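// run 5 | inverse folding | seed 20
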């Protein structure tokens, strides 16, 4: 499906960009659609290149504050988020939000999309309260936009609700928020999954990702067996529809491994997570990606519980080094992903770490 779409859009994009120029509204929309198709095909770097070209052309031909320039900036911010470059993503998303706020005083669909993209970036930077508030603002804006435009923005509302669900989940899991966050996250995630399955079918990538998100929340709420069953059923479908090594499939396997740990199936979890970690390591630069760090941190927890001390110490150094390269030294993710340190976390990167100082503090 996505390969055929790419082949067609490449022809259209090539023609329109040459004849009309990328700052033409139609050419710009085609370019963004092609970039999104590249992401679904597991080519995020190619998507980024296309979006950067579009942003440069729109800024030069239309101006920094033009709606097409702002749209390109928001999409590029979202792609940087997908690439694990969260600081860069926040910059581009923030530019889009600021520009849209100058253009639109009330609700607007693209303003809301920029707000939720910015919220996702803040979530990855561990500012969970800011993330939740941005997603709420985006949702309010979409509802106002629906009333004013007398149209439906169902797809956009689902995206924002899913982002809000996971932001509230993260705030509960990492920020030690009240149980209300977890129950509200489950309600929203269940609503999104049902809607995606009704609209796209159960095997669509959006349905599979929504099911993975709901399973993660259910596992934290104590329904570990249900969560395990959900993700295990979805992984073969993802392998068949979007590919064995696609980022979405790998993330599904990562969270499957986490849930297996919660279920006490440590050897199976180790097998699943080891394959994911090795897949990321085989790709240039992937040890600098947040998705690798999530998988590696779960494998670290697995080694700890299996009593594999040497493997655990090696993985500790890999995870801590990656966190510091992405987020800088002293990031909250050092605590969330590696453990509750005393003197160890303040030492230079690569120092020896004691077994007793480690306790992965995930809330489940």
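// decoded
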């Amino acid at each position: 499906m996505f390969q055929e779409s790419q082949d067609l859009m490449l022809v259209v994009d090539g023609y329109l960009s040459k004849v009309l120029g990328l700052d033409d509204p139609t050419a710009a929309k085609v370019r963004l659609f092609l970039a999104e198709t590249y992401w679904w095909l597991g080519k995020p770097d190619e998507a980024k290149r296309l979006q950067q070209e579009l942003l440069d052309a729109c800024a030069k031909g239309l101006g920094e504050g033009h709606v097409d320039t702002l749209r390109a900036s928001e999409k590029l911010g979202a792609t940087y988020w997908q690439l694990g470059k969260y600081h860069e993503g926040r910059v581009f998303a923030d530019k889009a939000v600021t520009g849209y706020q100058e253009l639109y005083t009330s609700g607007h669909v693209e303003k809301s999309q920029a707000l939720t993209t910015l919220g996702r970036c803040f979530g990855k930077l561990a500012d969970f309260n800011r993330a939740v508030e941005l997603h709420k603002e985006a949702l309010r804006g979409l509802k106002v936009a629906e009333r004013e435009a007398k149209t439906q923005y169902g797809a956009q509302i689902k995206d924002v609700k899913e982002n809000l669900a996971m932001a509230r989940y993260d705030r509960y899991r990492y920020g030690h928020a009240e149980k209300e966050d977890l129950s509200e996250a489950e309600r929203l995630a269940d609503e999104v999954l049902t809607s995606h399955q009704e609209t796209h079918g159960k095997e669509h990538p959006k349905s599979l990702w929504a099911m993975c998100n709901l399973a993660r929340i259910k596992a934290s709420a104590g329904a570990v067996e249900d969560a395990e069953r959900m993700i295990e059923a979805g992984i073969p479908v993802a392998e068949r529809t979007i590919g064995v090594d696609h980022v979405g499939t790998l993330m599904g396997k990562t969270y499957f491994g986490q849930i297996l740990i919660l279920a006490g199936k440590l050897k199976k979890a180790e097998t699943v997570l080891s394959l994911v970690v090795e897949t990321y390591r085989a790709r240039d630069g992937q040890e600098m990606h947040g998705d690798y760090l999530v998988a590696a941190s779960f494998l670290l927890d697995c080694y700890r519980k299996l009593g594999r001390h040497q493997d655990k110490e090696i993985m500790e150094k890999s995870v801590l080094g990656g966190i510091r390269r992405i987020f800088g030294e002293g990031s909250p993710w050092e605590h969330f992903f590696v453990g509750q340190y005393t003197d160890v976390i303040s030492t230079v990167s690569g120092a020896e770490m004691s077994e007793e100082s480690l306790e992965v503090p995930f809330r489940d």
